[in-house]
Design a protein that fits this description.
Distance between the termini: 26 Å
CATH superfamily: Jelly Rolls
Structural class: mainly beta
Oligomer: single chain
Low-confidence stretches: 1-24, 194-201
Length: 201
Amino acid sequence: MQVSDTKGRLFSSKITYSPAAGAAACELTLAEMAGRIETLTGVPSLSQIEEWFSLLLLRQRDYEPYRMFTPRKYARNLIVRSPFAELLMLCWRPGQRTPIHDHGGSVGVVMVCEGLLTETMYERTPEKRVHPYNTFKRGPGEITGADVPDIHQLLNLQPKGRDLVTLHCYAPPLSVLNTYSPRSSRVGRWREGYFMGGAGI
């Protein structure tokens, strides 16, 4: 997707940038970002959330309470949730991955905290299936945004012993995910109870 910044320059919402490049004196801590989400009075835009992430000063000691893994699926660990946005830490053992999915009408921003994230982008075919058209590798500090109706899959393809930790913000909070397959035109639905409470889908 092509979007414009405040100076009219075009960029892809899938192109990452380094938080250090835009950081100034107004860095945000994880607690301050959580406070912003708690006090929201409306749903923030994708560019607004990306700006928060670009200013984030993230230290492992600040997110250690949310750095929890599960053996079978990636873990979704809730940091804060308001009616307008939510902030989560996702923890991935090697080989753990999401299904191919969109965000059901929410926008999302992801920052890699530890490890190497693989993100594969998909598009719909005329037969209503999906096929991949690009794959990105993202390292610590890199940020990616998912607009509506982006379809993607996130994976930890690192070797054994190399965990992945990512920070995610969704606005509004996820209530349903639509899931897709290259082999079928059927669209699946994962509702909130399936992917909250510390468990992946």
